[in-house]
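Quick start: read one record
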Amino acid sequence: MAQDIQSASIPIQLREQAASRYNMRFIVGGILLLAFVGFLGFQMVRATTTTGAYFMTVNELLAEPNIQGQRVRVNGNVVPGTEDWNAQDITLKFSISDETMENVAVSQAVNAKQLPIVFYGPRPDNFQRAASAIIEGELLPDGTFQADTLLLKCPSRYEEEPSEVFAQSTR
């Protein structure tokens, strides 16, 4: 007795529903992937434009006429004797210059171009030993530089490279 075995066939409607569900998963997944990549691209562009700052020396900054109000990063040597720390207001004022002021006569130090800095925040512990500073902020109309961040490079007797101290403004 031979039995006829019929192969089970999937009805056409079920086959089309399964295929359309399968395609819909790929479409939704592709849209989510594109949205994620677009979001990452937007964040990269936004981060670059909002946190970017020109890197300049003191002489370059003072020579630039239209730099007021723009975010700038300035590198210079801390001028000895210009520190003014107000613990009541938590304000640190000092000056930086392109030239190293250690071996310069007092009369020459007055003639050197100096940039007055105002930093609202805690005074770094090793500010007295600071050799140079990298300051980020903006130049005010009165010629002072309001610093948002302060990075000090201090010489160390045990290391070849100077150690760095980072401080951020409280205002």
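Helices lie at 12-51, 58-63, 106-111.
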